[in-house]
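Run glutamine--fructose-6-phosphate transaminase (isomerizing) through structure prediction, thanks.
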Amino acid sequence: MVRSPFAADAGAASDVFVTLGMLAEERGTDSAGLAFLGGWPGLGGAAFGSGTGCGDGCRVLTARGRFSALWRTELLPELDRAPVVLGHTRWATQGSPADPANASPMAVPAGDGGAAIVAAHNGDIDAGDLRSRHALPPASGTTDSEPVFQLLAGCADATAVTGVLETLVGRAALAWVHRDRPTEVHLARAALSPLTIAVDTEQNIYWASNPRWFREAEEHTRARFATVVMLREGTYLKVGMERRPGRRDRPEVLATANFRPTARDTDMDDRVWTGFTPDDEQCDRAGLRHRVVQRPSEAPVPTAA
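Sure, done. The structure for glutamine--fructose-6-phosphate transaminase (isomerizing) is below.
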């Protein structure tokens, strides 16, 4: 979520965020996490590598199991203050769910020339292929997500971001925040893994896997959504608030770009649309446009998705 400073009541958006976290359990219960970002008072955390935070203005909480077990009501004051919040539920495709370093959102330290990021990934990509083509620092855990985050940490603009995204082979939906620009969120849908963007009538911006969750959030919270859009494969967005002197800016789309995603022939799996209604699944399938490779080591061969 990116919170609008013009919302009459912070609690309405916070309720949506918690509701989305609970609903996301249908896509994974191996581990869960949330990160408060934005530099508002009360969000100080420990240094990178401590497992509890990522520096001033950022706090990351992760735990094994369900989001509903991680979430507790005493976190509400922090949630209500945070301008940006990332949440994640995990189904462990790569990396043991018992290892805390494999849980997301993941705080990835800065590499040479890059800014530290806090990030989350849904999907399953060929991490070995990435490591064979890029000189990456040692990983803290054993997930396929971490090498992607290490590459994205060094991206200074949309061209660099889409360059990284086009090298991914497999399923991926990503959300990440650079620590030196905590009110900007980067969102990307590569091959298959779904990603939905919503804006409520108070101009808070949200993202989640399943569009159905926003319809359920309207039933169970005070929020009303002005737009709910499933992103097409190969879409990159930067959303947030530009800091301009003397202005309180509302969240908006700051940049967009398109790229060509690549999936393996084994990635097409009905579990991609776990929890989707038949209509939502049909709509999303109709817009697939990734290319397919037989093996990650081979050059991509364009085929029908």
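The helical segments are 10-23, 67-70, 76-81, 127-133, 145-152, 158-165, 211-220, 278-286.
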